[in-house]
Amino acid sequence: MQTIVADKYRNLPNINDAEEMLHRCVHCGFCNATCPTFQLLGDELDGPRGRIYLIKKILEGSNPTPSTRKHLDRCLTCQSCETTCPSGVQYSRLLEIGRQVHNKTLQRPLKEKWIRILLRKIIIRPQLFKYLLHIAHTFSFLLPSSLKNKIPPLGIMPTVSSNAEFSTADVTGQTNKERTLIMLRGCAQKVCAPEINQSATELFIQLGFNVIESSADRCCGALSHHNDATEEARELARRNIDAWWPLLEHGVEGIVITASGCATMVKDYGHLLADDAGYVDRACKIADLCRDPVEILEPFHGQLRKRTGMADNICFQAPCSQQHGLAIRGRVEQLLRSAGYKLTQQNIAHLCCGSAGSYSTLQPEISGKLKNNKLQDLCKAEPSLISTANIGCLLHLQSGTEIPVKHWLQVIEVNELVT
Ligand code: SF4
Ligand code: SF4
């Protein structure tokens, strides 16, 4: 699509990328076929092609309106359209710039603004989040069951979650194991399901790795990035880079992230800090060294088996961040099969479950419908358990079913210890 960018937007960071993406889009509409919001709402403006058109008009100088914002806000940022697009349009780059322009030129209503600020400020502070969750659970008897089900669980912090707390001295001074990994602690997951990192750590240690956590790392920045606070996301990314870089310089192999949504964010650090000369090189290197657990565990597939006592028939819900963001579709499924599981079939595995970070709070109606559709599909073969790879999807799906939902790292174990 030919686009003539208005002079006032010429200096925006990433405007050249946006122009290139608009140029690549041939308006074929293939992407609409795999867009969850288009499939659900049937409105052209709630599909990628329509949204691209809205962003093009805005960049050409049309004024953003509450209506354009509504359609952009309804996007889950699931990136399914990117996987489908035959022209290689990176729609999420366009959306990023479209949202930036909106935020600069059209203020959000105060209520919407505050909900986003509160979500960000609470969830990225694990202590505060934990405290508020504790209060919510204590007084949950006052709530109707529809709301009660939406309160995330409060996990029990494991006593030991890694071989070592971070310090450069630890890394240089240790270790009798050859390979060392940093494990991101995360924010929501650390409070709601710390047992996920614990299971992952146990697996890695049994396979001969050293696992360390850095007390200096923070939230990956995804929540801020998707909620009108790009500068906050950039600051979180810089803090993480500062925390991890000394370790990587001392031979740590990489950063393993058990929540695929967070891994997708860290993989994007090079882009996020592209105009920050002091950080961009390290950001790119860190993005390169960021790993999903499956990438590390695949070579050990012969040493992994299904966890003792688990039934064979489970279902794996592949998060969008894993399918489209990290582009490692099918690999966890293969590992689970080789561990002994019979995975049940799905018809809409490519469609988002509606969790999408804070989307389930900000767009409850659409999110709820997507969740119901997804659960119907996941549960139709009556699996004994649903496994997934992202804390957001896990909590979201669990709030709608009695079938247990677990991270896939919690359903496998090492069949013989490496000595
Ligand atoms: S599939 Fe790609 S080229 Fe076709 S309309 Fe969608 S984004 Fe544009
Ligand atoms: S990111 Fe997902 S919800 Fe947004 S336009 Fe693309 S497919 Fe649709």
What topology does this entry show?
Blueprint: H1 15-24, H2 36-41, H3 48-59, H4 66-73, H5 80-84, H6 91-105, H7 110-123, H8 126-138, H9 145-148, E1 164-165, H10 168-173, E2 179-183, H11 188-192, H12 195-206, E3 209-213, H13 222-225, H14 230-249, E4 254-256, H15 260-267, H16 269-272, H17 280-289, E5 290-291, H18 293-297, E6 304-306, E7 313-316, H19 320-325, H20 331-338, E8 342-343, H21 359-362, H22 364-379, E9 385-388, H23 391-398, E10 405-407, E11 412-414
Parallel strand pairs: 1-3, 2-3, 2-4, 4-5, 7-8, 7-9, 9-10
Antiparallel strand pairs: 6-11
This protein binds iron/sulfur cluster (2 copies).
CATH architecture of the largest domain: Up-down Bundle
Query: Approximately how much helix is present in the residues?
Result: 40-55%
How are strands sequenced across the largest beta sheet?
1-3-2-4-5
Taking the alpha carbons of the first and last residues, their distance comes to 59 Å
Biggest β-sheet, characterized? 5 strands, parallel
List cofactors, ions and other ligands. Answer: iron/sulfur cluster
Number of strands: 11
Total helical segments: 23
Q: Tell me the structural class.
A: alpha/beta
What is the CATH level 1 assignment of the largest domain?
Mainly Alpha
Q: Which runs of at least 5 residues are low in confidence (pLDDT < 50)?
A: 164-173
Global morphology: globular
CATH fold category name of the largest domain: Glutathione S-transferase Yfyf (Class Pi), Chain A, domain 2
The gyration radius over C-alpha positions equals 21 Å
Mean pLDDT: 90
